[in-house]
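Q&A FORM
Asked by: J.P.
Topic: structure of DNA-directed RNA polymerase

PROVIDED:
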Amino acid sequence: MSALRWGRGAAGLGRALWPAGHPGLLAEEGALGGVWGRRRSSSASPCEQDRGKDWGHNELLEVLEARVRQLQADCVSEVTVKRVDVARLPEAGGFQPPRKAQLGAEGAAPGLSGRWAEKLDKEKWTMQKRRQRLEVKLQERAQKLARKQQLRVEPRLLNGQLAACLQRWEQGSPCSPWEEQLAWLLQEGPQGLSGEVQQAPADSGARAQLESQQQRLLAFFECCLLTGHLPLAHHVLVIQHSKSRPPRLLTLAMYNTVMLGWARKGSFRELVYVLFMVKDAGLAPDLLSYAAALQCLGRLDRDASTIQRCLQQMAQDGLPLHGLFGLPLCEEDQVVLLRAVCKAQPGFRPPPQPRPPPQVSSSPLLRDIYEKDLPVSYPRLHLPQKELERLFQEQLRVEMATTVTVESVEKAPRLTPEVLRARKTLKGLRARWEAALCRALQESKASEAQAAREGRPTLLPYLCLLGERECAQLLLQTLQALPPQGESLLSLAQQLGLRAFNRHVVQRRLLSNQVRDLEKRYSQYLHLLASDGQVAEPCLPRQHWEALGAPEAPHEQPWPLPVLVQLGKQLAELLVRAVHMPSSLAAPQGPPKLIPVLYHVYSFRSFRQIGILKPHPAFTQLLAAAAERTLTFEAAEVPMLCPPLPWTSPHSGAFLLSPTKLMRSVEGTTQHQRLLERCPPAELHGALDALTQLGNCAWRVNGRVLDLVLELFTAKGCPRLGLRRELARCLKAAREMHSLRADALYRLSLAQHLRRRVFWLPHNMDFRGRTYPCPPHFNHLGSDLARALLEFAQGRPLGPHGLDWLKIHLVNLTGLKKRESLRARLAFADEVLEDVLDSADRPMTGRKWWMEADEPWQALACCMEIAQAVRAPDPAAHISHFPVHQDGSCNGLQHYAALGRDSVGAASVNLMPSDLPQDVYSGVAAQVEVFRQQDAKQGVRVAQVLEGFIGRKVVKQTVMTVVYGVTRYGGRLQIEKRLRELSDFPQEFVWEASHYLVRQVFHSLQEMFSGTRAIQRWLTESARLIAHTGSAVEWVTPLGIPIIQPYHHESKILINGGIQSLTFSSSGDTSQKPNTLKQKNGFPPNFIHSLDSSHMMLTALHCYRKGLTFVSVHDCFWTHAADVAVMNQVCREQFVRLHSQPILHDLSRFLVKRFCSGPRSPKPSKNVWVSRLLDTLLSVPKTGAFNLEQVKGSTYFFS
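REPLIED BY: S.T.
REPLY: Here is the structure written out as tokens.
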């Protein structure tokens, strides 16, 4: 610093100092520029004074040090700098003038004397101290951060005795080996220290929250083991254990999971740490805990004495040694465990897993199904063993790839330069997006790892389960499939989480030996199904599969719903952040920059504001311009190319590798799965075998119908026939139109993909027992078009009566002769045979008779089948693949009438023989018309307006659904919709007329079905009282399927952070209070659905015994035309057998035992509800005099 700058800096101090030394010298050097004036008072605020003081001190130190350096540099020998002192600052206002400084003599001691120098030293010392304190703080903070980064291994125990023992052992470990600690812990360690803490909270909401947190923690620990993050899992376990606040989150399963991980690594010390925490938590080790300890000893080849002490303690705890070898451990774990046990007990051999004795369902309805002495004629497939094995390998490759790419049936564009340019642009963007997503995933993993070190379960292990490239491809597939209107972030997150889980399960099975074992076992299984296969004795597919080997490997536990949503949300947010495109695609004239491809916006749907991820319009336009003709489906969304695996348990069956639920439910609901797992296996055999039989039906595509449909679809579509291509203007209509068009596109593309292929549709069931095909886009449960595209892959000769059944089926599809006899329908088919043949030959250019049918596409397919049959040299020998349907006549009311033995109701729904079919809808309409006429005579205005408008179509939907629990409000909406469709009805009376009609419809049903209404009321009241006792309604179907209604009060689950906090509801958990309204309204229809599913399953199993091909759409049964008569006989016999059981009395006994037989509650109010429930359950409705045997002679029961 120059002398000039030094002087200017000192002058800026506001005359705080007097000059030291000779004024002339300082003036000569240009330092101070003269003598300062006297002190002036200051008007600055105290804050300003303090800031001035600090600035002055720092600046002065800088100036003086610089001056010293300058004088030394100039070698001014005759001048020595004496110590200078800063004038003392006054306590208030202004500055004190310094004492007069004196210049020392030349021969004086070195340095200038004075208070300035003392003050300077003092300030330097103060600054040094401050610096030291700062360095100490920084060092402490760095150490704290380092400790935070370091994963904890040693536990912090809450029990003083255990903590002292652990500390003593750690300090004296050379004298006290860890094996001794293990033995002490198992034998003498204190237990039950935290029993008070372990009590579950009494409040149902808190209990549900605790269970959710425990599920998330357990899933986190299990995933950490799979991804090699065992130290992190141990770290989180230690931190969670150290939190003493009740209720404790950790369960024995969590401790065992981490212990098993350390055992596999042979890390004995860490395993003992976990065992210390188990004892500290007041938990008793179970078989899995001992298995982990023994396995670790076996890997480390420890001496036999420690192992022997473990085995002795296990015996004292009442745990059998052979139970160790029934645990769900992998093969390697079992080998190491056996080696350890054999070291202590050399002669030990694990007992062979006894094959459980064949169990038979206790249901009397299934006795004939499993009776070995009765003759059977199980059907076989039409394909040989080698072909089926080839199809198995093809399906295996599909599921290993996890996705299926299908060519779209969209009209192929001309390859113009614009199309080629758009495709090249997309290809380049996708390559960059994949790289960007991989980088974003790496950053996200690093961030989650940092968060996990704080002791919280994070998404790190879930993100590591799949490779970064696989995750990136999954996200790009999701981006490709987003509709232009966008998709709810919550829905997208759940889909992404579920897809990630399914891929993880497939990978786990590939990495294990399951695929190799599956190949061997499936090849043997095909001996039962193949046309050239041989088996020792005929049996059901499930029985044959179980006889082939050991039980299946442990199934993968599904991740909790919050984990699925949180993982999917994070993946979706990665997609939003990482995927960008050049702005030139949106605005060619603007400055070049990158813009997001996805935007997060909010929209109102059903009066709720939801977050939506919406693609940029420029990206949608780019996709449209590229016109890529491929669609990507999940492997489990596509029909199978080989026969499905037989259902053998609640979690084993259907697809080869892709996980499938036996009982479908809302994601996150576990009560159904728990109920099925607690059920004795034999009680599920009826349902398992029925589902396997339905899935073993081989299908093929009706090529002629598909060609015509594709011709219409790629042209302009035909809304009247269910093919829509027109554009919609409003947003809601646009969404609906996009959904309808996507549905048609997926269905037709899959049909084209499977053309000339044989495929299978694996089935599962809902919580009531109703069956559904697993592939959602292409199956026989769809619309008229979907059903017309499918036919049986295996054909049967029509036989003597098959052609007649084809004709009757065609007339049924037209809806023209519903109240006519079968003979009259057959005669009508012969009358219009020319129109039928014209429709088959010229469907779009002829008279188009088929288009007037209620089900036009199925009618057209039937016309084509009839044309081939009548033109065959011998119609009876014609091989037909066409499925013929027999539909129940208002099946719900049929079950009610049979339950109540209601003769009037039975006659109305064709349970009694008659020459003509009874139409219950026309009967109700006629009864309503009687009431209307009476009211019109009394001058009721709305009754007069309705004259001539009350017909079958107006009341049909309400009559059909009243048996399934429709309320008057819902019925009014149904009738209102029908009235608005009547062009000549005065629309100003629609609201009033619908109110009037729904009252009359319910009144008519009460008159016609008095027994039905009594049973309905009994079921409703029973469910209401059960819900008031705090339980959900449960029952067991006649085939033994356990049912529980999933209606509970919703609990809100919040996922914080990111671009949007997600809140979603969960209402399927038994720990939550039941929803009384839904429980009571849902019980009657759900109970009837469980009966119609039982009837269908019985029919399916008996048809299978007779060698028939059988499938169903709930109460609509399908088979070959030649076998309709046999199926009709079986259908009626099984309905009579079903309702010959005391169904209502069995239900009453079950409900009494389940809800009224426990100890009295400490709550008096609950005891009151239980008492009222018991009275209601014992008051079973009385039945009428209807004879069920008459059903066997009813032609129109199913027709």
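FOLLOW-UP: The two ends are 110 Å apart (CA to CA).
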